[in-house]
Each structure stands twice: as C-alpha cells, then as structure tokens.
Known about the structure:
Helix content is 35%, strand content 20%. The protein has helices spanning 2-54, 76-88, 100-103, 150-153, 186-199, 220-223, 228-231; strands at residues 58-60, 63-65, 108-109, 116-117, 125-134, 137-144, 161-168, 171-176, 206-209, 216-219, 237-239, 246-248. The strands form four sheets. The protein has a six-stranded mixed beta sheet with strand order 6-5-7-8-9-10.
Amino acid sequence: xxxxxxEKETSHILSDELSQEITKNEQQTDIILKKRKRDNEQExxxxxxxxxxxxxxxxxxxxxxxxxxxxxSEFKPERKKQRILQQNGELNSSIKYLLIEEQTxxxxxxxxxxxxxxxxxxxxxxxxxxxxxNLNSEPQLLCCNDGKHHSYLANGxxxxxxxxxxxxxxxxxxVTNNSGHYKPTDSEMLDFIKTLYEESNGSLRIxxxxxxxxxxxxxxxxxxxxxxxxxxxxxxxxxxxxxGLLVNLHTTxxxxxxxxxxxxxxxxxxxxxxxxxx
Length: 278
C-alpha cells in the first residue's frame, strides 16, 4: 500500500514537471512568434515608408505624376551655400534662390488658352522651366527667360519636371529635358509630357531629349499612343501638320509644298492659260 502511494505521488510530480515544461515551451514559442510578427511588421512598414517618400503620386491637372526629381549631387554645395546666405539675409536679388512668394510671378496660368503668366503676359519664345510642388497646393509650372538656373526657380528643391519650353504667342509647341541641375530622364518626363499635350489641346508637337550627346527629337502625338522607340523622328520623317503624327517624306528628294487658300477657279482656266505650277 505504501509502495502504491509513493508511486502515485511520483507520478503526480512527474506530471506536474512535464506540464510546467510544456507551458514553458509554449511561452517561449509564443514569444518567438510575437517577435517574428513584430519584425515582419517593422520590415513591411520600412518598405512602405521608402516607397512613400520615393514614389508619392502627385496630382497635376487631373493626371498623376509618379516621380519627383532631385537636384544632382554635384550641386548640393550650391544649395548649402544658398541656405546659409538665406538665413543671414546676405543674398543679392539677382542670384538668390526664389522664395515661395517670389515664384508666383513666374507661374503659368493653364486654366485658359492661350497660356499666360499670372500677370496676364503671353509667353512667346523659349523659356527655362520647372514644375514645382509641395504637399499643400497644386504644382506650378514656372518659366523664365532672364538667365535664371532651374535650381533658382525651384529653390533647390525636388521638381516634377525641368528643362526648356517653347511657346508661340501662348501656344505650347516644344518641350525638352535640358537641365544641368536636375538632368531628368525621358521616363521621368513622360507623364509631364503627356499632361502638357492634353492641356495644350495637342499643340505640343515635339519633345527634345538631351540624354545623349546628340539630342533626339520625338513626336509627342506618337508618344501618346506608343513609346519612345516608335515616337523618334527619323531622318526621312516629319510631323504631319494636321494629325500631329509622323509621316514619311517623299522618296523623290523633294516635298510637295502645302497649298493654302488655293483659288479653285484657276482649275477652270482656258487650255492655253497656265493654271498653276508646283
């Protein structure tokens, strides 16, 4: 009888120890799983954070611009100097980065055609431009032709596009990515180009890329339908004045000139009368 009681007590002790060991293992497993979950959540947050700051979509004229372009690293000393001079109030007005309240005078009003500056002046000719933005307002297209660099227009901050832009009495006809401070790629410019084409009612005909030593011209109407490879203007191609698309030149070595305001009564001239000549 005593032996049976001892065995029973021993069995209870072993059972308790086993139960405690199992509980301990479960607790350790739970701690490990929670730590893994926390690490995974932190990793996911970090990835999302990086994606957020690098590729935050920006709405402009009802279109999404996916990328912001930073000033190139070789110009960071310039920006640092400007920030110091701004703090000390030592900048000459002709060389200083533009402040927010000063940028407005270079902004293009795109709500009506032809395009105009905010003071009502109609742009004509070639201008340096930046598309600037901040999180509290609509992006602004800034243009100037008084020798200012892109960094001065944009206050050294990130832009959505930069280059040169050409107007003909307020009508937008050409845009480039020619900016030494920002050097935007063709892909970084593409959304901007497409938005400009729509806002200009198709008057934007040419995008000129400075990514290569010899600049390459692209037909913007073709870009709206395909890609850069198919939109490149070849040596034997031109942009059709009516459709805006690429057409091949005549293989005879000359082009038939466009006839504008033709007097069709001349087609009824007498047989010996010269009607018209090419």
